[in-house]
Amino acid sequence: MSHQTTPITRVVIAHTLISALHGLAHLLIPVPISVLQALFIAGVISALPIVAVVLVWRQQVKWASTVLLVSMAGSLLFGLYNHFVVISPDHFSQMPPTSLGVLFQVTAILLAVSEGIGIGVSVWALNPRQPLIP
Length: 134
Description:
Layout: H1 7-28, H2 35-57, H3 61-85, H4 99-126
């Protein structure tokens, strides 16, 4: 089992760090979330990327790529809707003009970027013409 850092692993590490900072901003501002949102965040946004890394480590790159694609696409849609579309306490524009509000806004943008990159890495790895990511 190889624990070298692959593109999938790097995307998951970055996304996890950004998610943790975003979650901290949610907690400290505070920005409330529903039980269903919390379950989605725990399962799709937090757990599935870790499952993808474990699958990479077990040399199951196609499965890892599929799991990461589902996670990143779901995360991106969830974040875009909640942070940039529906006006609620979770919307980008509703943050207080404080360092925590800026942290929330910056991490909301970085989450979208990391999820887009995660989708790209997943699609690239699933392309049958590409060699498997080591």
